[in-house]
TrEMBL record:
Keywords annotated in UniProt: DNA-binding, Phosphoprotein, Transcription, Transcription regulation
GO molecular function, one term: transcription cis-regulatory region binding
This protein's name: Sensory transduction protein RegX3
UniProt keyword annotation of Metal-binding present: no
Pfam families found in the cross-reference section: Response_reg (PF00072), Trans_reg_C (PF00486)
PROSITE patterns: OMPR_PHOB (PS51755), RESPONSE_REGULATORY (PS50110)
Source organism: Nonomuraea soli
Length: 220
C-alpha cells in the first residue's frame, strides 16, 4: 500500500515516514500542495492543513477527483468547526496533533477498509468500451485491440474525459478546467502536448479529432 505524506514540518514528516515504513507501507513525502497535485495517486494521503503554498482544504477538494485515494487531514486545529470543515471539504477522516501512532495506524486501516468496499461496489470497475479501446477506471487500465497502453496520470484523465463524452466535442476550456483544475496554471501548449502524446499511444484505431476553434472529440 502506498501512502503520501504532505507535511512541511521536516521533523514531523521524518517521524511519520519512519513509522509508516516500518509498518510496511510504501511512503512518499511532499512539503507543498503543488507537489501533491502533480504526484501519482496513492492509496492514502495524509494532508497537513497548514501548507506553505495554500490551504490544505483546497488541496483536499482537488484530491476528491481521485476516488481511489483516501484522504486523512492531519492538523493541530482541534476545534469542532475546523474538523467539520475538513470533513466537508472531502477528507475521509481527521486526526489532531499530537496523536499516538496506534491511533494513526488504526485510522489508516479504517479508511482503507472503506475504500476497498467502495471499489468493490462502484460502477467505475465496469469497463468503458469504445470501438477497439477498453478502459477500466478503477485500475486505470487501457487496452486497444487487446494490447495494453501505458498512460501518465494526466494522459489517463484526459482520455477518460473524452471517452465519457464521446462522440461529443469537449472544449479546450472544459478539458483544462476538469483535468488540470480551475486554479492550475495549465497552458494551451500543455494541452496540445498531452493530446499529441495520447494520440501517439492510442494509434490510428482510436482517433482523437480536432474540432478547430472548439476542442476535441474521441471518435473510435
Amino acid at each position: 500500500m502506498r501512502i503520501t505524506i504532505i507535511e512541511d514540518d521536516d521533523r514531523v514528516a521524518r517521524a511519520l515516514v519512519t513509522v509508516l515504513t516500518q509498518s510496511g507501507f510504501e511512503v512518499n513525502r511532499m512539503a507543498t500542495a503543488a507537489e501533491a497535485v502533480r504526484a501519482e495517486p496513492s492509496d492514502v494521503v495524509l494532508v497537513d492543513l497548514g501548507l506553505p503554498d495554500g490551504d490544505g482544504l483546497d488541496l483536499i477538494r482537488r484530491l476528491r477527483d481521485r476516488p481511489e485515494t483516501a484522504v486523512i487531514a492531519v492538523t493541530a486545529r482541534s476545534e469542532e468547526h475546523e474538523r467539520v470543515r475538513g470533513l466537508r471539504a472531502g477528507a475521509d477522516d481527521y486526526i489532531v496533533k499530537p496523536f499516538g501512532i496506534p491511533e494513526l495506524l488504526a485510522r489508516i486501516e479504517a479508511v482503507l477498509r472503506r475504500t476497498r468496499a467502495h471499489r468493490a461496489l462502484r460502477p467505475e470497475d465496469e469497463p468503458l468500451v469504445l470501438g477497439p479501446m477498453r478502459i477500466v477506471v478503477g485500475t486505470r487500465e487501457v487496452t486497444v485491440g487487446g494490447a495494453g497502453v501505458t498512460l501518465t496520470r494526466k494522459e489517463f484523465e484526459l482520455l477518460l474525459l473524452l471517452a465519457r463524452r464521446s462522440p461529443n466535442v469537449v472544449s479546450r476550456e472544459a478539458i483544462l478546467d476538469q483535468v488540470w483544475g480551475a486554479t492550475w496554471e495549465a497552458s494551451s501548449r500543455t494541452l496540445d502536448t498531452h493530446i499529441a502524446a495520447v494520440r501517439h499511444k492510442l494509434g490510428p484505431q482510436v482517433p482523437i479529432r480536432t474540432v478547430h476553434g472548439v476542442g476535441y472529440r474521441l471518435a473510435p
